[in-house]
Structures are given as C-alpha cells and as structure tokens.
Amino acid sequence: EVQLVESGGGLVQPGGSLRLSCAASGFTFSTYWMSWVRQAPGKGLEWVANIKQDGSEKYYVDSVKGRFTISRDNAKNSLYLQMNSLRAEDTAVYYCANIIVAGRNLVGHLSWGQGTLVTVSS
Amino acid sequence: DIQMTQSPSSLSASVGDRVTITCRASQGISNYLAWYQQKPGKVPKFLIYAASTLQSGVPSRFSGSGSGTYFTLTISSLQPEDVATYYCQKYNSAPWTFGQGTKVEIK
Description:
The structure holds two protein chains of two kinds. Chain A has strands at about 5, 10, 20-25, 35-40, 45-50, 60, 70-75, 80-85, 90-100, 105-110, 115-120. Chain A is mainly β. In chain A, strands 2, 4, 5, 6, 9, 10 and 11 form a seven-stranded mixed β-sheet that branches. A four-stranded antiparallel β-sheet of chain A has the order 1-3-8-7, with no helix packed on it. Chain A is globular and about 45 Å long. The model of chain A has no long low-confidence stretch (mean pLDDT about 95). In chain B, about 35% of the residues are buried. Chain B has strands at about 5, 10-15, 20-25, 35-40, 45-50, 55, 60-65, 70-75, 85-90, 100-105. At the A-B interface, strand 5, strand 9 and strand 10 of A face strand 4 and strand 9 of B.
C-alpha cells in the first residue's frame, strides 16, 4: 500500500523558516517525480513544486521561487520542502504527492499524503 | 502563465441528474488536463488524465472530454457519494495550475 506521511508543519512567525518532510513507502520512490501541493484553509488546491526522480529538474510556482526549495533523498525514500522567508499567505496544509506517468508523459498526482499544516502568524 | 477557470463555482443537483463542470484554459494545452475529486475533510483523489482517460478504479459514471482550451467533467448520474469539490489541473508545463474548484452538492 502506498503511504506518504508528511511532517514538520507548525506555527512560525513571518520571515521564519520551516522544513517539511514526506516519508514514502509502498512504491519505488526513486522512480517517481514528486510534488508538493498546498491548500489554504477553506481554499482550493495550489501546486507548489515538482522534482524529477534524480533531483536534476525542479519547478516552482512563481509565488515561492527564491524562498522554497524542493529536494529528495532517494536512499531515505524522503521528499523535503525547505521554506524560508515565510509569509502569512503561505499558511496552508501542505501535501506531498507522487506523479503518475502514462506512456512518456507525466499526467497528474496519483497518491497523496494526509498533509501537514503550516501556519504563519505573529 | 496559463490560467485555469472552472464554472460553475458551485452547483446543486438531484440524485440521478447529469452534471457537467467546465474548465477553460487561457491558452491551448492540448489534452494535458487532469481532474481531481476532494470530498469534505479528505485528500484529493485522482480521477481523469489526458482530458478523458479514467484512472483505474474510478466509476464509469465519470467522464471527461475536451482539448485545447475547453474541457468538461461529466457525472452521468449523480450519486450521494459524489458530493465533493472537483478541480481541473493543467500539466503540459510548469506551473501545474489548478482551477479554483467546483463544489457539487445534492439538492
């Protein structure tokens, strides 16, 4: 059974930092692109970042570029999101998700974790 | 960046009704579109990719269509368990933008 378990969320002051982790099991982590997706309280889904299997390609939504860094450790089956210079508008539940491939194309987020809540407030 | 706009934002329909949700892209994205279902208090579920390909295990009452800039998600016969918010997402290139969501309720 695929499991994705996020951790590292919490309350942080504006301008502060947090590092989220996602522990993966039940699938061959090293062969999947991975994502972070967030959802502000009562709001819709927002894609945050993607990372290729070997970490050689990373993509971000404009609002987090230069502040967030996605990374992975395939030996530990783990995905990370380093979040710096946090703002109130970063308050959200952060989900990690694996990306399914069909043919040669990435086609969407198949499996999701339960999420970890990040609250940015003074 | 390409914007994804869903309509309506919410709808209320009776059990057994045919329900259609629209997703429009501000530029053409071929068929690089996915649909997700998020039930209240739950994590999103992957329903459809390539605009019309049903993910394994998804009930056949769900279907998707479209290409370019106009896409639809149809529930052929609405069931009580379909109460959820539905999101489209483009994945042709970063950013993988979601639509704002369509909340489906039972009348």
